[in-house]
């Protein structure tokens, strides 16, 4: 480095300026991508959740969750550059108060029965494998009416929304008292009153290709799906019906959960998918500009990410950062393996930033 380089660097640094020639590699070589591929095993995570359930009150954290913190993240609550993944535990009788926020959010149920999320007046009960979507701007509160803890995985687009400087949470929920006239003052409530029939989402949207024309398909202040619950029995049956098709060379029999009113992804930013890797199936490697969070729902296998090999079984979770080549394999020649995944593909496509290629 010449004296001139040195003095320019010092003069610039004092003014919070930097010459591109100092950092051209990081600008033109992928930017600020520090996120790592990483796996979190259920055998490690579950005991922590159970202990958190015993010793951390719901009030203390608002939501009692443990976050999957990427080892390359600057902000400890970021699982990838755009996704936040956490696990929640609700003890019998617990209720988490209502709020809404600009990030899109979701639950995928792992363990226990009797859990529910009430979204825009619909009480969505939960069983293992159910996907519950709370598109941004929808009021939601949670609880557990069962007699054992309920555990689920949450995925939010919080890091993406934070990077846009647009993450806002609201807690001041109000509704009209029962029987009040429309001119009455709404009153503040900690939980929503259920105002929709049980299984509203499934009754209204449960047959693909048929949508009632006499109902509104915008629910809450949201552009996401009006179908809030996707039942595991339906998902599993759909995977099974397609098992003899060739499927994707990169992902096997893979399905995307869609908004039944317009066929798009269920949120404006995140795509939710589920894939069946048939016994002995090994996929080819590809890479995408999107990042993805996975959770194994059934069976066991491996995912190779660059030079790392993740071995997964039920409830293990892993993340694949942007542009990392990856391929999956079902580890069994007798049993199915099923992966649930969430990516930021819709956000990237809307911004014209999505690319994918074989690797
Ligand atoms: O359960 O509503 O992990 O709003 C982060 C934000 C869970 C929730 C999280 C949330 C929730």
Based on CA inertia axes, which overall geometry fits? globular
Query: What level of helicity do the residues show?
Result: 10-25%
Sequence stretches where pLDDT stays below 50 over 5 or more residues: none
Give the beta-strand count. Answer: 24
Report on this structure:
The chain is α+β, with helices and mostly antiparallel strands and 359 residues long. The chain is 19% helix and 31% strand. The protein is globular and about 80 Å long. Bound molecules: 2,5-dihydroxybenzoic acid. 2,5-dihydroxybenzoic acid binds next to strand 3, strand 9 and strand 10.
Quick take:
The protein has 359 residues and is an alpha+beta fold.
Write the layout of secondary structure elements.
Layout: H1 3-14, H2 20-28, E1 38-40, H3 42-55, H4 58-61, E2 65-67, E3 84-90, E4 95-101, E5 105-111, E6 115-119, E7 122-125, E8 131-134, E9 140-144, E10 150-156, H5 158-163, E11 169-170, E12 174-175, E13 187-188, H6 200-205, E14 229-230, H7 232-241, E15 253-256, E16 271-277, E17 286-288, E18 292-298, E19 301-305, E20 308-312, E21 317-320, E22 326-330, E23 337-343, H8 345-350, E24 356-358
Antiparallel strand pairs: 1-21, 2-3, 3-10, 4-9, 4-11, 5-8, 5-10, 6-7, 6-9, 8-14, 12-13, 15-16, 16-23, 17-24, 18-21, 18-23, 19-20, 19-22
The protein binds 2,5-dihydroxybenzoic acid.
The site of 2,5-dihydroxybenzoic acid has 10 residues, from strand 3, strand 9 and strand 10.
């Amino acid at each position: 480095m010449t004296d001139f380089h040195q003095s320019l660097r010092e003069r610039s640094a004092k003014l919070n300026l930097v010459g591109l020639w100092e950092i051209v590699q990081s600008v033109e070589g992928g930017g600020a991508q520090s996120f790592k591929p990483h796996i979190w095993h259920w055998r490690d995570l579950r005991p922590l959740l159970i202990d958190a359930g015993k010793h951390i009150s719901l009030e203390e954290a608002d939501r009692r969750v443990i976050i999957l913190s990427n080892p390359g993240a600057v902000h400890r609550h970021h699982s990838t550059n755009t996704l936040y993944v956490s696990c929640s535990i609700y003890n019998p009788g617990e209720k988490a108060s209502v709020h809404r926020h600009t990030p899109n959010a979701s639950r995928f149920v792992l363990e226990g029965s009797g859990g529910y999320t009430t979204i825009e007046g619909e009480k969505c009960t939960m069983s293992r494998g159910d996907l519950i979507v709370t598109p941004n701007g929808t009021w939601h509160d949670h609880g557990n009416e069962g007699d054992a803890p309920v555990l689920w995985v949450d995925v939010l687009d919080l890091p993406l929304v934070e990077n846009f400087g647009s993450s806002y949470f609201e807690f001041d929920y109000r509704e009209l008292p029962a029987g009040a006239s429309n001119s009455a003052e709404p009153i503040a409530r900690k939980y929503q009153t259920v105002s929709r029939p049980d299984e509203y989402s499934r009754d209204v949207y449960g047959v693909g290709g048929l949508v009632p024309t006499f109902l509104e398909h915008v629910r809450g202040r949201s552009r996401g799906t009006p179908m809030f619950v996707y039942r595991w029995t339906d998902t599993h049956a759909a995977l099974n019906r397609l098992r003899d098709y060739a499927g994707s060379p990169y992902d096997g029999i893979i399905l995307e959960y869609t908004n039944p009113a317009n066929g798009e992804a269920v949120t404006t930013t995140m795509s939710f998918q589920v894939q069946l890797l048939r016994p002995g199936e090994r996929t080819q490697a590809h890479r995408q500009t999107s990042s993805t969070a996975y959770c194994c729902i059934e069976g066991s296998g491996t995912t190779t990410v660059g030079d790392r090999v993740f071995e997964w079984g039920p409830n293990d979770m892993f993340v694949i950062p942007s542009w990392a080549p990856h391929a999956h394999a079902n580890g069994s020649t007798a049993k199915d393996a099923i992966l649930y995944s969430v990516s930021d593909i819709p956000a990237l496509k809307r911004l014209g930033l999505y690319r994918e290629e074989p690797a």
